[in-house]
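quick one before i forget lol
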Amino acid sequence: MNKKTIRDIDPAGKTVLVRVDFNVPVDEAGGVADDTRIVAALPTIEYLIDHQAKVVLVSHFGRPKGVDEKWRMNRIAEVLQDRLGKPVRKVDDCVGPQVETAVKGMQPGDVLLLENVRFHPQEEKNDPEFAKQLASIADVYVNDAFGAAHRAHASTEGAAHCLPAVAGFLMEKELNALGDALDNPVRPFVAILGGAKVADKLAVVENLLPKVDALLIGGGMAYTFLKAKGYEVGTSLLDVERVDECRALMERAAASGQRLEIPTDVVVTTELKEDAPCKTVPDDSIPADWMGADIGPDTRACFAEVIKAARTVFWNGPVGVFEIDALAEGTRAIAQAVADSGANSVIGGGESVAAIEQMGFADRISHISTGGGASLEFMEGKTLPGVAALQDK
């Protein structure tokens, strides 16, 4: 990583605006259901506290349209306070007189959490004046929100141009883990792509194919590839507009000797319900009124063998509807294989992380990314605006 980090600054006595990613899931009662993202930011926050900075935290939470009581940061402040073991003051806005007064009253080592930055529409518009207002309370800007680094918003990109801007420890960790996998992998390097939408992953497939030793395709996106082979896919998830692109990718991979693997058998069902009938069929024999919902046993065995030999693995997206027990075997087999491989393994956020944690393999994965969309865009070869805005070393 060629960006400056908080190690490259002296934060003592300075007000440091830290963009964190506290967009956590909530339970039915409105409480924090999973505080993984809060915990992931603690090393940066604790370092700044220990180095006598005045720490001001800003994040988005949910997708509110203006001020919305449901999406206030109060419950997050409570969890953060418990995790830090020290008081966290929370204010009811992220800009304006209340914030300015609260910051003026801070002492070195204090922590202040601002209100949900998305209560202001100027945030997602990356409004320059709003970015300046956000930055005006601070001496230094730190971006530790890798999960939002692919968005050019006022708090992720705009404010970074108004202050000396460096990376936090989580941002550094994410960029190093993903960068090593992409640019300096120990071989064999195997990528596994699943999930529902083939449109979200085609550019990643294109960028990874020349870099990996094998690329394995599963999940809902696989059925567009099967359709591109001329197979009927029944009522399976299908992106008709991407069939030609998938066919071209497979032809290009075959012509250049690149290993692009798609399922040879699939588990099909009549509907995505726990008690719906399921059966395994070859990839070219999906019945007209059934849908593919998991990779089959032959594909599981084949993919597991490829993964077993890997020394570097990147995985984004489950290979089946793992929330339903009968359709979780494929994703469980992939998770088991990745864990057993002993490879440098990077899991790229989103549902893959949920599956890994649910199935009990999280502690055997080298790096679990906090950013699904950001990790995908990074592996696609895109420049992330929130990273590009930080100071180079």
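fyi The chain has a mean pLDDT of 95.
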